[in-house]
Design a protein that fits this description.
The structure holds two protein chains of two kinds.
Chain A lengths: L1 E12 L2 E12 L3 E5 L6 H8 L7 E6 L8 H6 E4 L11 H11 L5 H10 L13 H14 L4 E5 L7 H17 L3 E5 L3 H4 L5 E6 L2 E7 H5 L2 E7 H8 L4 E7 L3 E7 L4 H9 L3 E4 L2 H9 L7 H4 L3
Parallel strand pairs in A: 3-7, 3-8, 5-6, 6-7
Antiparallel strand pairs in A: 1-2, 1-4, 8-9, 10-12, 10-13, 11-12
Helix pairs in contact in A: 4-5
Chain B lengths: L7 H15 L1 H18 L4 E7 L2 E7 L3 H17 L3 H9 L4 H36 L12 H31 L2 H20 L4 H10 L4 H23 L7
Antiparallel strand pairs in B: 1-2
Helix pairs in contact in B: 1-5, 2-3, 2-5, 3-5, 3-6, 5-6, 5-9, 6-7, 6-9
The chains are: A alpha/beta, B mainly alpha.
Amino acid sequence: MKVIECKDLTKAYIGKNALNQLSFSIEENKITGLVGRNGAGKTTLLKIIGGFLKETSGTIQVFSERPFNSLNVSAHSIFVDDKMSFPPALQLYELLEAAGSFYPNWDMDLAERLFDYFSFDRKAYHQRLSKGKTSTFNMIVGLAARCPLTIFDEPTTGMDAVVRKDFYRALLKDYLAFPRTIILSSHHLDEIEDLLEDILLINDGKKHLHMPMEELKEWAIGIKGATATVLEWSDKKELIYKNQIGADTLYAVVKNDFDEPSLMKASLAGLKITSVSASDLCVYLTSESKGGIDNVFSDR
Amino acid sequence: MSLVIANLVDIVKKQYLFKLKANIDSFSSLIWIQLLALLFSLGGVGSTLASSGYLSIEVKYYSADLVIAFTMIWAFVTAIIITTKPYRNQDFTYVTNRLSSSLANIIFLLTASIIGGITAMLVNNLLKIIAYFIFNEQLYSFQSGFRELALGISMTILYVFCISAFGYLVGTLVQVSKLFILFVPVLFFGTILLKTSVQKEPFLTSIFKFYFFEPSLLLLLLKILLTSCLFFFTSIAILNRMEVRR
C-alpha cells in the first residue's frame, strides 16, 4: 500500500517555487530519510504532507486522501519538529495526557518511561524548556503517538550527541515493535544512514534521487590516482565530484556503472577505488558549482 | 496498524475539552475584569437629589451595566485571541482540521459567554448586597426574584455570545490581512464621527437600536442568533482556506 503519493506537486511562495513538479510515492511501513540542502523544500514538503500547507498545483494523497483539511490524515499522522506549539497553561504531563486523548494508538507507558528516562519534570512548562529539551519532549510525543505516518522534521535540533543516539535507538526499537511509516528529515545523514531503508534526496524543490539506502551506498565510487589516469577512466562517465589533491593526484566521484573486470583493471592501473559514503554523496550531488566557500575569501 | 475513521463530533468534543483546559487563563482574567467593573460601579451610576422644606430625598442608582459591558469587551478580546496564530497552531499539534478547530472554538466561546453572563448577573447582586450592608442604603429594587434573574442571565449570555461571534470574525479578518487592524477601528469610529459632519443618525446607533431596543423577546432571540451564526459561518469559510504554521 502506498501511504504517500504525490504527482507534479508544486508549492509557490511569492516569487519562488519551494516545490517544483515533485513526484514520488512512499510505501507503507518504511523509514524514509528526506535529505537536501538548506532551503531545498524539505519542510514545505513535510508540512504539505501533514496538511498544514496547501499545494499550489499537482496532487498529493496521504492514505488516499488530500491531506489539507482531512481529519483522517490529521488523526493518523503526526508532525514533529522543534516548533511544535503547545498551550502555555498546561504542564508537560498534562500535554502528554492531552495527546493521549487525541491519538488512538497513544502509548502512555512508553511516553512515561521516556519522560522519566530523559528526566523531565511533570510540572514543568514547555515554554521554559531549553532547545534540546524541547526537541526531546516533542520527540517523545512523536514516538508515543504511534501514528501510522510519523513525520520528524529535523527532530534532533539542539540535542546533544548522547540524546541524539538515544533517540535513534528509541526510534528503531519502537519501529521494530510497531512498524509504521516514518519520514525523517535530517542534516546528519551519517548518523541516521543505518536507520533508513529509503532515501529521498530533493534539491531546489525537485526530486533528485529516491532509492533504497543499500543502492545509494553503491551508486557511486570514488577514484583516486594520477590526474591523467583518473581523467581517462572517468571519461564518458557521469562525473559527480572532483577534487585536485596536491600536484598530480585527483579524486573523482563517478556513477558506478563499471563491471568487475574493469574495476580490476583500474586497480592494476594504479587507481585507488573507494566507496563513497551516502552523506558525502548527497553533498556532492547537491553542491552548487561555485568552487566552495574558499572562493568567497580568495582575491579580496 | 488500524486506521479507524476519524469522527468529527468526537474530535470536536476532545478539542473542546482541551481548549477549556488550555484557555483556563481567560477565565481568571474574566474575574479580574468583573471585579474592576464592580469597583467602578460602587459609586452608583447616577443620583438625583430632591428636597422641599425639611424633607430631602436622595436616590442613587446602582447598576451592573458596566459589569456587563466589561464582560462583553472581555468576550470580544477572548474571541480575537483564539483566532491568533499560536492558538491555531496549538490545535494542529494534535488532531484537528480547520472545521473542527472552529467548531470547538465556537463551543468554547459559548461556554465562556455562559460563564461570563452568569457571573456578570451575580456581580450585579453582589453590588446590591454591598450597597445594602456596607453603604447602608435602603434598597428599592426593580428587578428581583428568580424569574428576573433568569431572564437577565439569559439575555446577557446572548449578547455576550453575539459580541464574541463578532470578535471571532474580526480576529479571522485580521489573520487574513493585518490591514484590518486599522480598518475595523476606522470603520467603527468613522461612523460615529460621520454624525457630526452629515447631521444624520450614525450607522452604529441604528445597529445599537436594532439589537438593544427590541421589545419582542422571540424576535430578539432570532436576531441575535442569526447574527451570531452569520459571523461564525463567515469566519469558518475564511479559516477553512488558511494555512497554518507557515
